[in-house]
Amino acid sequence: MNAVAHPDARPEIHRPGVEAVLVSTWSVGTAERQRAAVEAVRKAWESREWPDPRLLGYTVYCGTDGDTLLHYAQWATQEAYDDFARTRRDDRDAEIDAAVPGIERVEPYRYAPPYRTAVLNEESAGAVPGLVAAVEVEFDGPDTGRQRAWVDSVFTALAQDEGSQRIPGAIGAQFHLSVDGARALDLAEWESEQAHTAWLMSLATSPVGEAWAAVANYPGIAGSRVRKYTPALSLSAGV
């Protein structure tokens, strides 16, 4: 049973049976090496048996920075990933490294499936995204209650924003919580990078309400960043 690629190059975020999500980043250096690495991943995976039936989906995004690749792997359980990780270095990795030497791999962060999902434009719901803005928030220590409360504060702000369901070019957002209690990840889907940029420009010229100020200044946030990606490759086991 070999890997098969999905035409819209995106994961099934709410795939049944997923209990663990592993998110990691590769640094490859240039846009040309990004494209080469994605193609190497495709070839290495499609030419071999699916490595573990408990791996339910594997998606790669290309950073608009011309350097990074974001990897989003969906597992049946955290233990399933641990079992796989003990022998994770296989001929797939060797083939990818031979095609694109010098890849810098960052250890994956462990997340649960999405805690909450927001629809940002009812007319665009279900559309294939041209851009994913990955919003990463790091807290100053583990606190699962604080993780949930911060995400809930985002939804409070959305509910108070009269235009939150009609943001031009927006599709939706999926909020994940790390299993260590110290991080949150929002994968916000947009129709295009231009739509996301236009929204950011509109924010810069609009007054910030109290609810959104509370999100930005939430107690205990140690840092945050936004990285932009385009869907590149999504794989699952063939049938």
Can you tell me about this structure?
With 239 residues, the protein is α+β, with helices and mostly antiparallel strands. The protein folds into two domains: 3-111 and 230-237, Alpha-Beta Plaits (2-Layer Sandwich); 116-228, 2-Layer Sandwich (Alpha-Beta Plaits), CATH 3.30.70.100. 29% of the residues lie in helices and 33% in strands. It has helices spanning 31-46, 78-85, 91-99, 144-160, 193-204, 210-216; strands spanning 3-5, 20-27, 55-63, 68-75, 104-105, 109-111, 116-119, 131-139, 170-177, 183-190, 221-237. It starts with a strand and ends with a strand. The model has no long low-confidence stretch (mean pLDDT 91). InterPro entries: Dimeric_a/b-barrel. Keywords: Monooxygenase, Oxidoreductase. One of its GO terms (molecular function) is monooxygenase activity.
Topology:
Layout: E1 3-5, E2 20-27, H1 31-46, E3 55-63, E4 68-75, H2 78-85, H3 91-99, E5 104-105, E6 109-111, E7 116-119, E8 131-139, H4 144-160, E9 170-177, E10 183-190, H5 193-204, H6 210-216, E11 221-237
Antiparallel strand pairs: 1-11, 2-4, 2-5, 2-6, 3-4, 3-11, 7-9, 8-10, 8-11, 9-10
Helix pairs in contact: 1-3, 4-6
Number of domains: 2
- The helix-and-strand class reads alpha+beta
Shape by Cα distribution: globular
Arithmetic mean of pLDDT: 91
CATH topology of the largest domain, what is it called? Alpha-Beta Plaits
How large is the share of residues in beta strands? 25-35%
CATH architecture of the largest domain: 2-Layer Sandwich
Q: Over the alpha carbons, how many angstroms does the gyration radius reach? A: 18 Å
Separation, N- and C-terminal Cα atoms:
7 Å
CATH class of the largest domain: Alpha Beta
Number of strands: 11
Order of helices and strands: EEHEEHHEEEEHEEHHE
- Total helix count? 6
Q: Spans with pLDDT under 50 lasting ≥5 residues?
A: none
The major beta sheet can be summarized as: 11 strands, antiparallel
Task: Kindly state the percentage of residues in helix.
Answer: 25-40%
Protein name: Antibiotic biosynthesis monooxygenase
Organism: Streptomyces narbonensis
Keywords: Monooxygenase, Oxidoreductase
GO molecular function, one term: monooxygenase activity
